[in-house]
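Query structure, 201 tokens:
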């Protein structure tokens, strides 16, 4: 039986097990996020999933509100606090995405879900990243994370789509653990994550 047909049951079992195992971590992080940023503790945003269909992505908040005390707008990099950087470096902000995996919006491994506004900017080759469910981690994440340029990132995503398999997924999951421990490639210089995709030039 091909891995593609077993991938969803595998995701379901692992996501459910991890949610139960990490429940104490959720219980600790949630009030800390509330104390640091207020309510809500989750960041929710529509992202494109399988076939480009939108779903609501959920993460722990890592930023203050988008305006300063004097009412002026702040950049994402300015809004990202030390506590927020810690959550991102340890990938703890991603834990609520296990729920997205559980309900079928995402997979443990796949191209990272980007912004809805990028959909019309993809060329046909780049759009192939939506032929599989988006993942909490992926081939691009273990090969540079947010330091990878957009063109290379999409090539890595499409390569994954064309080569998805059990051993590749296991390799990515193992590599992800080491990438999280090393905390490399979290953001581009001067950015909260990386610069926005502007389409092909």
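Result returned for the query:
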């Amino acid at each position: 039986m091909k891995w593609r047909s077993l991938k969803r049951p595998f995701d379901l079992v692992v996501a459910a097990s991890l949610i139960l195992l990490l429940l104490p971590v959720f219980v600790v992080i949630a009030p800390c996020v509330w104390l640091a940023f207020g309510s809500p503790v989750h960041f929710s945003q529509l992202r494109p999933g399988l076939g480009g269909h939108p779903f609501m992505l959920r993460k722990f908040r890592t930023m203050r509100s988008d305006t300063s005390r004097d009412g002026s707008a702040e950049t994402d990099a300015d809004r990202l606090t030390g506590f927020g950087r810690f959550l991102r470096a340890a990938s703890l902000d991603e834990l609520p995405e296990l729920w997205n995996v559980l309900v079928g919006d995402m997979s443990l491994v796949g191209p990272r879900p980007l912004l809805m506004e990028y959909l019309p900017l993809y060329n046909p080759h780049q759009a192939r990243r939506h032929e599989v469910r988006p993942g909490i981690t992926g081939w691009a994440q273990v090969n540079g994370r947010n330091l990878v340029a957009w063109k290379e990132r999409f090539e890595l995503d499409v390569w994954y789509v064309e080569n998805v398999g059990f051993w590749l997924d296991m390799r990515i999951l193992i590599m992800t653990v080491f990438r999280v421990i090393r905390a490399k490639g979290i953001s581009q210089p001067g950015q909260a994550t990386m610069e926005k995709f502007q389409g092909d030039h």
